[in-house]
Specification:
With 321 residues, the protein is α+β, with helices and mostly antiparallel strands. The chain is 31% helix and 31% strand. Helix 1 packs parallel to helix 6. The structure holds thymidine-5'-phosphate and aspartic acid (ASP).
Length: 321
């Protein structure tokens, strides 16, 4: 098989049977601290592959698009071929790891709301944290795509957290990667395993790679325990939540906007002399049965053109934040 890419814990091969599929093979090696710490544990690749398979299938079942197609023999997954976006998307529910270190925040502090962060995928720069503004200025990923990735990451956070909660476990944080398929669909890619998540039991004991990072136990038995716990979970009991996206329709500039003129006159009469102009548009809250996907985004745009807005006099925007 032709090797397309070699990562620290995975190898990606071209699928000999199809141009738009790849075979991802999980290896037994483990690294931490930007590659400073390195080891290998027999069976680690196969357990990480089992966990990724289980979680990708679970998320697909809840309506999240992933690259996963099927399990192959050994520690291999057959996946859709994608072009990976050059950002790592990290979601945190509880302070730990680089967040605690960077901001001097005690490990274990729970956030009021999950936090989504972006890191540049570039080993030579040591994968730095980056703002959405800087990412769009550099032109690495567009704002629309970043907003979409944020939205999907928050859905993944909900579904993974709920599944783990059933078993008395807490999802502390995790890292996701996304890619674009050949038919222009953005899907969740890479892996979801204890190599890329932090999970604690009810005694704040780690069931993830922190065991290796911090040298505090036997990695294989911990990974196995997590796999067994996930196998005993009941994905069907996790409720699919409805999501809302906003479609904002605005009058195009230069087009007369009588409701805006009426409002402006009323504001002037009330003494708001600083108002220069008012343009009135519409907001549609569209409630979805499942998480947003690129297919749903396309549908929303078509819906708009056909029904919600008048493309001659109005412009529309699907708002994901
Ligand atoms: P961090 O606290 O080191 O930034 O990590 C946050 C989460 O992202 C944690 O669950 C581990 C995961 N992660 C990776 O999967 N790969 C990486 O290269 C890094 C830095 C973190
Ligand atoms: N996985 C990264 C590395 O190998 C960092 C980490 O997860 O600690 O360096």
């Amino acid at each position: 098989m032709e090797l397309i890419h070699e990562g620290k814990a995975k190898r990606v091969f071209a699928d000999p049977d199809s141009n738009n599929r790849v075979i991802i093979e999980f290896s037994d090696s483990v690294t931490a601290g930007d590659g400073a710490k390195k080891d290998a544990f027999p069976d680690k690749g196969s357990i990480a592959c089992d966990i990724s398979e289980l979680l990708f299938s679970y998320l697909e079942g809840k309506g999240i698009d992933t690259h996963y197609i099927k399990r192959l023999k050994g520690p291999q997954l057959l996946c859709k071929k994608v072009t990976i976006f050059p950002v790592e998307v990290v979601c945190r529910n509880i302070a730990a790891g680089s967040f605690s270190k960077r901001y001097g925040v005690e490990k274990g502090i729970k956030f009021e709301k999950p936090l989504v962060e972006f890191f540049v995928k570039d080993d030579s720069l040591h994968d730095p944290l980056i703002t959405m503004g800087a990412l769009t200025r550099i032109g690495l990923v567009s704002r629309d795509v970043l907003q979409f990735l944020t939205r999907v990451t928050l859905s993944v956070n909900y579904y993974l957290s709920e599944l783990l909660k059933q078993q008395g476990l807490t999802l502390i944080d995790f890292k996701l990667e996304f890619g674009m398929t050949e038919d222009n669909t953005i899907v969740l890619a890479d892996e979801i395993s204890p190599d890329t998540m932090r999970i604690w039991d009810n005694k704040s004991t780690s069931l993830d790679k922190d065991v290796f990072r911090e040298g505090k136990g036997d990695l294989i038995s911990v990974y196995k325990k997590l796999l067994d716990t996930l196998r005993a979970s009941k994905p069907e009991d996790v409720e699919i939540v409805k999501e809302v996206v906003q479609v904002i329709v605005e009058p195009k500039s230069g087009i007369k906007n009588p409701p805006g003129e009426v409002t402006k006159k009323a504001l002037m009469r009330l003494g708001f002399a600083e108002v220069d102009d008012v343009r009135v548009g519409k907001v549609f809250n569209i409630i979805l049965k499942k998480p947003i996907t690129t297919e749903i985004l396309n549908h929303l745009n078509i819906m708009n053109v056909k029904l919600l807005s008048n493309p001659i006099s109005e412009k529309h925007k699907v708002r994901l934040e």
